[in-house]
Structures
1.
Amino acid sequence: MINRNISSKLIGLTKQVPVVTVIGPRQSGKTTLVKNSFPEYNYVNLEDPVNRMFAKEDYKGFFETYKEPLIIDEVQRVPELLSVIQVMVDEDRGKNGRFILTGSHQPSLQRGIAQSLAGRTSILTLLPLSMNELAEEGLLEGLSTDKLLLKGFMPELYKEGSREPIVYYRDYLNTYVEKDLREMLEIKNLDKFLRFLTLLAGRVGQVVNLSAMSGEVGVSSTTLSEWLSVLEASYIVYRLKPYFSNITKQQIKSPKIYFTEIGLASYLLGIETENQINRDPLRGNLFENLIVSEVLKSRLNQNKNPNIYYMRTAKGVEVDLIVKKENKLYPFEIKTSMTPNKSFSRHLLSFVEAEENALKPRIIYTGQSYPQFGGVEYVNYKDFKKFLDD
């Protein structure tokens, strides 16, 4: 099993609150994480129809059968249990680590938590594997950039005898559509939704114009906005918000779209081989997606708010990624190039000059790391410690 960086936060929280909730996309490793972190806990999975019916029809008998400390997997399947857990927790507020809940559907689970478990639970978000986690297991060194973009970071793909990425992501997409999507959204034309998802994959790292896309998909921009919200809520995509800078008020104010799992984006683009991805015109966008998702994972694995942004002005000044830590701004330019170029640093230096709290401008790229070149630091993307930890 690959050790997950978030595990120490999970273990620590069980000593501080009665309930810990782990949310995240399907197959990101939530069940494995909680079961391996707490082998002494009882366990029940509400994906099982029998368990689900038992919990719905006889919750008292359910909790007599599955005694605490208890892991309840896919708790969003029976949201009524959250109110019952609230009552049980309130009977003894001094006891922590009683329940660990997992869930894949953020909307329903978040609503239930807000209504029933506010002040009684802490929430952790687990995304797919990070480069840091792969490196700690010795699995990163042999993976080329193109292999990472093609394979992605789903835990199952790093098990012996796993499916090929193209087969895995086809099955993953079918599971998402059949189980999650139908529960969260009534879609009359599934083909149009899948076309929208594919079009989003072709726009990774870009500002998405839903009004323009509505004509391509054949539905209203209002519907597309609803679909996009569902995709974000179920961790398929992530919206990177703009940072409002002192440089100018004339900024692009719409978010950029990235996929939480880069392998799924590559699959949706019809990419099947490393050679194909190497020649694809969107390779740079996919690489940028990889870096943004790695920073996002790092922040969430530390149980911190993402606080990541981008900036683009109407005059063309652009910073690919800005990480805000303790009121300090760390700007990044992301390039697939293996060779430093002074032109890469122009926008970063403009940003640092305009923002008094900005420091350590860095180029994340595929070449050798250099402490200083053209006024900025160049960092190879696999030297993640240099740009994830300050």
2.
Amino acid sequence: MNLPSDYEQEMKELLGTELEAYKKSLDLPVMQGLRVNTAKITCEEFEAITPFSMEKIPWIPNGYFLKEEERASRHPYYFAGLYYLQEPSAMTPASRLPVEPGDCVLDLCAAPGGKATELGGRLMGQGMLLANDISSSRAKALLKNLEMAGIPNVYVTSEDPEVLERNFTSFFDKVLIDAPCSGEGMFHREPRMMEYWKERGPEAYVPVQKKLILQGARMLRGGGMLLYSTCTFSRKEDEEVIEYLLQEMPDMRLKEILPYEGFAKGAGLEKCVRIFPHRMPGEGHFLALLEKSGEDSRPGQENLRTGKRKAPKLPDCAEEFLSLLSYPIDRENLKLDRDRLYLLPGRVEVPKLRFLRTGLYLGDVKKNRFEPSQALAMALKPEEFVSCIRLEPEDVRTVKYLKGETLDVSDLPVEKQKGWQLICVRDYPLGFGKLAGGILKNKYYAGWRWQ
């Protein structure tokens, strides 16, 4: 691979005698990755049913090297949200931010969702994830990935981080900033990035990165943690951004990152981590974990954490459908917005923002009937719905369902012979359908259909 001469000189200064090993690594095959969604299935359970050729990624608890990415994106288990396809090194930032159930978490630059889906999954339905991307088109892809992963306690926004900072000062327990960058660590995977680098080098991104990290730190509560990451090698975009934060906000301090033998120390900041493709299988990455000192006070934000709500009056059709669920619903957290019904995350009250989603979208009230959403199906377990139809992944009807076709399921056992059914591949939901006389009317969301 022919590298830009200016870039090669910078890497020589950074790597010294390791430069040739780095250059040779760029001619190796690109590594593909699969990360198991542990909110839906354990790694052991997935290993028992996977049809793919996989090998464990040693530094990612739920990550695997994958040899057949195209096949993995065309399997019913993918549509069931059991895994996310992600480059191995890109799995690292979310794995090193210690998110716990009940946390309020911000992913500030979240699209397309590789890191947000992992953070949301680790919340296990408790607390709240705010996933934001300033680009509306990218935020739509983010929303789909979060809903496919079955993350219920999520707000998805497309806001300028400045607006978020005004509304969420000293609020979040954990913040992740995977900052836009010059992408030097992706030259191997996407060689066209070199042309972009020539047009817009590291200097073009530094002002944005410095602004983002300050905004993210200000939204962090006392005692909270922030993880900053990029997929570039430039010290200007990596260590110098961290040094700038530490200078501007003395209440922030670097923390040790859970180690791995292939990690390299930061250039001048040894607690930071660099991932080089000649030291470990994957692309280039930079990570820094920081903690904010002080007590958890959240000045002026008490209403965001303890807001009281009044249970809304629901139409009879919505009440009738909810009676089919054994999914835990706090009725005070229900919100009927025009004809759309949502289940909001906990008692967190949020201001008016440019939302793409507020909590778990349950469905629509249409005249005298209720139509459940695709998002609800993906958040359920089979035992949480009154009646399920289970299909095997090899059954031709599984793909037909994902294509939106009507199915004859008269040979399959069902708990309820008529009405709404949760359609599953084995024990993993795909969507809804409506059964009558052994024929299933397909309700799989048109925008997600198998093409």
